[in-house]
Structures are given as C-alpha cells and as structure tokens.
Amino acid sequence: MKDVLDELAAARRKMGTATLPAGEAYTMELRRRYDAHLDDVWDAITSPERLSRWMKPVTGDLRLGGTFELDGGEHGEILRCEPPRLLRVSWMFGPGADEWPGTSEVEVRLSPGSAGDTEFELIHAAAVGEPMFPIYGPGAGGVGWDLHLLTLARFLGDGEVLDHEEFRASPDGHEFSRRSAAAWGEAHLAGGGEPDHVAAAVEATTAFYLPTGDASAGRAGQR
C-alpha cells in the first residue's frame, strides 16, 4: 500500500483557469517526475501499442489534425503535437458530448530532468458550464487522472500493466481513490472554492469511486 500512496503523493495538484473555444474554463493540473528518459515517456503516451497497455486501446487517424477514440468512449481531435515535448487534444466523453464541442482539452508537457528523468505536466481544461463540475468539482476528472498516472508510473518502472477496474475494486484502490478525492478537494480550496461546495464535491466524488458502505466507513474512520 505504501508504494501506491507514495505515487499519489508524488504528484502536485492545482486548480486554475483557462480560455477555450467554448469560453472560460477551469483547469485540473498535475505535475510529477518520472524516473524514465524523455523519449521513453513520450513514446509511452503516443504509441498506440504502449498507450493501450497503461491507459486504454486507441484507434483513429493518429496525426496532427486527425481524430482519436479510446476504448472507454473518450474521443477528440489532435490539436498540437511537438515531439517529444508537447501534445494537446480536445477531450470529449459521454452522451451529448458532441453537442458542446470545444469544452474540454488535455495538454501534456514533458521536459528533461537533470538526471535522465522526465518532468511530466498534464493540464485538463474544461468549460465552467460543463455539467459535472457543480457536483464533483475537479475530482470529476482528477481522480481518474491520478489513477492513470499511477498506472503509467508502474508501466514505465517495470512494464507492469495495472488493471484499472481490478485495482479500483481492491482495498488499496479504495484508499487511493479516497485520498485522491481529498487531495483534489485541497486543490479546489486553494483555487478559491467555497468550503461548503468543496466538501460536498469531495463527498460526491468519493461516493462515485467507492461503494457506498466503504465510502461511509472511510469518512467515519477519518473523524
């Protein structure tokens, strides 16, 4: 369990603002270091074969201006690609997503570290009016990204492929999700969120990722 929580603690989270074609947006920002070479990290996030092993299978016209679709339904357009340092895509998900295009973008920035490692930064910008934010806050997408960055760390470290659903259902996965939701609540507060909204959003996010009984037990145990 310690190594899982160490991976969670390795990331720095921030909530900010941005402007998208759809208007003003909030951002979920994650920064961390990977003990892998820049070219290896770039290949892991852009190679369809490797991406499918730590994230999800991807199909589409995978070039600048082309489109992609992940096995889970996420899809979009490749807006910017500057190997091996920057990738930006539009990011749509769920029923009705195409009715409000331009409301979500994901950008990954890589830079070389001083010891052959890689500084990794992910920024997910979503329009303020998107429907999940009032309920879940930045945890709507933030917990999912924390899980993906954990699986990427395992994959880059020793090639291990972590099954998302199996991990989420495990005791370690429950604790990881609970702490991730709380960490995004802290970022939300630091970004100017109203305390009552933040508390409700953290509770809703925790309940979404954990079975009801387990989520309630976790909150009771933290009092």
UniProtKB/TrEMBL annotation:
Output the SUPFAM superfamilies linked to this UniProt entry: Bet v1-like
Q: Which residues form the Activator of Hsp90 ATPase homologue 1/2-like C-terminal domain?
A: 36-132
What's the domain of life for this entry?
A: Bacteria
Please give one Pfam family short name: AHSA1
The entry's family comment says: Belongs to the AHA1 family.
Q: What is this protein called?
A: Uncharacterized protein YndB with AHSA1/START domain
List the top taxonomic levels of the source: Bacteria, Bacillati, Actinomycetota, Actinomycetes, Pseudonocardiales
